[in-house]
Design a protein that fits this description.
Blueprint lengths: L10 E5 L8 H10 L6 E6 L3 H4 L7 H5 L5 H13 L3 E6 L2 H9 L6 E4 L7 H14 L2 E5 L5 H13 L5 E5 L15 H9 L2 E6 L7 H10 L4 E5 L17 H18 L8 H6 L5 E4 L14 E4 L20 E2 L14 E2 L6
């Protein structure tokens, strides 16, 4: 995974979902078109449909026509890697995990959907792949009761997975903004002691950028957005998908927020130090002669164009009662070099 994945820098995933509807050329072009300012591309991979659902399921016949060959997947992933993209495979079946193992150099992370979490064999296969090939393990965590989520997290950690990412966000085709509940991001991060990302599933025509920016500010540096070639064109998963131009704009906005958030270093940066020049400075209220005692009534505070230094809050308390060692003029800046302790004045 790119190094920003492990930092607080924005890491943006373009999720293709099933927008390709079994069209290899569409998915290949979708992959080819992504500029490498986007960090990763995510694919839903399904190879053995009979492992995934019963034949009587109403969408069985539809999905049967959407299955890509392993050669197709190799071509698509090779294109993604040549485009300098991290690749994430959401594996819907064990055959997909086996494909990832055979082509591990083309895969950077493997994900298990929350809908598949109770398939322990699939979960274990994905974990084993992650451990064997040192890949990031991702789990969608929406739709869990807290205790179940704690149990799942404990199970995954017990397998000694090195890199774990929990993705918060659920799909209601689309998800209402009022139900997103971004406040959970910080709570889950503290509760699970894991990296938390945000997977956006709000409607493309809504201002989803506000939610993405807010979730990033809450600590979710990994962001996932549904991606389509033609924004608004009706097809599977289109309702939450954005096009290339908007995807790049989202990444650009996240980069700006990253710069604005800065670091946790409480020391003043150059800009803050420069801002201190606007602070009022202590000045002599009138001309004073040498050997006079500096009193509070002798001082006034005003802004000057170029102060000699930054004066701290309450520092004048250390000056009062000291002796002025040379004549000073009205509105001259008060500096410690003009003063000495009264007791030393003989």
């Amino acid at each position: 995974m790119k190094k920003q994945f492990y930092s607080n820098k924005p890491y943006l995933i373009a999720e293709t979902a099933y927008t390709f509807e079994g069209d290899y050329n569409y998915l290949f072009e979708q992959t080819k078109d992504i500029p490498n300012v986007i960090d990763a591309i995510k694919y839903h991979m399904l190879i053995n449909l009979d492992e995934y659902m019963v034949e009587e399921h109403p969408v069985y016949d539809l999905l049967k026509n959407w299955i890509l060959s392993e050669d197709n997947w190799k071509d698509i992933l090779t294109e993604a890697k040549s485009n300098k993209l991290d690749t994430i495979i959401l594996a819907d079946d064990k055959a997909s995990v086996e494909f990832c193992a055979k082509n591990h150099e083309l895969v950077d992370a493997i994900e298990i959907h929350s809908a598949c979490i109770n398939d322990i064999e699939l979960l274990d296969d994905a974990i084993d792949f992650s451990n064997e090939f040192n890949k990031t393990f991702i789990l969608g965590i929406s739709g869990f009761e807290i205790q179940e989520l704690l149990d799942v997290t404990e199970y995954i950690k017990s397998k000694n997975v090195k890199d774990i990412l929990m993705m918060y966000g659920f799909q209601n085709f689309p998800t209402d903004i009022e139900k997103v509940n971004l406040s959970k991001i910080k709570v889950l991060e503290n509760l699970l002691n894991c990296k938390i990302g945000y997977a956006d599933h709000t409607e493309y025509s809504k201002n989803k950028e506000l939610l993405i920016n807010a979730s990033y500010s809450l600590g979710a540096n990994v962001q996932e957005v549904h991606y389509v070639k033609d924004e608004g064109l009706e097809k599977t998963d289109y309702i939450t998908g954005v096009g290339i131009e908007r995807l790049c704009s989202i990444k650009e906005n996240l980069e700006i927020i990253f710069k604005a958030l800065g670091s946790n270093d409480l020391r003043l940066n150059d800009g803050e130090k420069k801002y201190l020049n606007f602070r009022k400075v202590p000045l002599y209220m009138s001309d004073l002669e040498s050997k006079q005692i500096l009193e509070r009534s002798s001082i006034v505070h005003k802004r000057v164009e170029t102060p000699t230094r930054q004066h701290k809050f309450n520092e004048l308390n250390e000056y009062f009662g000291k002796t002025i060692i040379k004549d000073v003029n009205k509105y001259k800046e008060v500096i410690i070099e003009d003063l000495k302790e009264k007791d030393n004045d003989h």
